[in-house]
Amino acid sequence: MADRGVRVASGIAVGVVVIGVAEIVSVLISPDSTPLQAVGGWIIDHTPTGFREWIIGLVGTDDKLLLFICMGVVAFLLSALAGAVERARRPIGSALFAVFGVLSTIAALTRPESTWTWAFPSILGVIAGILLLRSLIERADRSSDVTEFAVERRQLLRGIAIAIVVGGGVGLVGRVIGLRSRSVANERAEVTLPPPATPATPVPAGADLRIPGLSSYLTPNSDFYRIDTELTVPQVSKDDWSLRIHGMVDREIHLKYGDLAARPALERLVTLTCVSNPVGGDLVGNASWLGYRLDDLLKEAGPHPDADMVLSRSVDGFTAGSPLAVLLDGRDAMLAVGMNGQPLPTEHGYPARLVVPGLYGYVSATKWVTELEVTRFDRAQSYWTERGWSPQGPIKTECRIDTPRAHGTYPAGSKLTIAGVAWAQHRGINAVEVRIDQGEWQPARLAAEPSIDTWRQWAFDWEATGSGVHTVWVRATDGAGVVQTADVADVVPDGASGYPSLTVRVS
Ligand SMILES: Nc1nc2c(c(=O)[nH]1)N[C@H]1C(S)=C(S)[C@@H](COP(=O)(O)O)O[C@H]1N2
Ligand SMILES: [Mo]
Question: Residue 247's domain spans which residues?
Answer without folding.
Answer: 205-387
